[in-house]
Amino acid sequence: MKAVSYADGKVKFSIVPRPIGEGVIVDVASAGICGSDLHLLQSKSHSPHVAGHEISGVTSNGKHVAVEPIIPCSVCEVCKSGNYHLCKNDSKGMGMSINGGMTEQMIVPEGCLIELDSRVPIKDACLVEPLAVAIHGLVQTNTKDTHRVAVIGGGSIGLCAIVAAKYIGCEVDIYAKYDHQIEAAHELGAGELNGKYDRVIDCVGNDQTLSLSSKTAKSGSWIVILGIPMQGINLPGLRVIMNEIKIFPSIMYSSTDGVKDFTIAAKVLSRYPEIGKKIITHRFRLDEAEEAFAVAGDKNSKSIKVVFDPSLT
Ligand SMILES: [Zn+2]
Ligand SMILES: [Zn+2]
To answer: Which ligand places an atom closest to the C-alpha of 90?
Structure first.
């Protein structure tokens, strides 16, 4: 079957055997390219495997699902606490350390499947993963509907953060660098930055955005870092400490009081089934792997979320 695979520090179209083994067979409906895929590709640190951790599909008995792409050990203390995303006990990441979803078919452990209701467009449901990333940061910082939320960065995580904050009931504003991002953010209901905020969601995580985030955060509030800093970062120390601004470096998704961020994210997409039209800007065939990654990595392409659709011919 067709797949998009990492090999020798590159990403390319390939033909791979159909998966065999324990678990549920999922026919992939959509698989998104994530900023972290581009980071890992740049660092050439991939082992050879099928790419893709933002995945939706249909099981052999017709269930529509999103795939939570982490397989933790499930028995260690960290896993039992609900923070299974932090498991260091031989946990695996689909598309990160083992085969992922940029292909026609996968076999997925039952526990990684999140069932989608009929309102969710299956071809857009790879967005459940980045929505879960945004939900995690908001849930972990106890974000309430009374909070004003600022989102810094208008890539797909930033746009998902807007939608996630709206779902909670927050007023949300955006700062983004590119016009097409700002336009999409406004269409999703974000206003322009004004004043100070109870939660600042920094979806870039570099020195410049952290400086803006710290100026934008109210005293005693939280900055949630959803952007992945690939090197050391500088916080404006005095401003942060004199205002007791709390920092939450947020990664992936987990479960709080028995509720998975992924489950909430599926509800977000069910509430706002039209967001795919604003966030997904490009769809590619699997055999267009190199072009798709080039478009996703090119700031001038006006791409936001670039998605593989295995059914395209
Ligand atoms: Zn991702
Ligand atoms: Zn574990």
So the answer is: 2
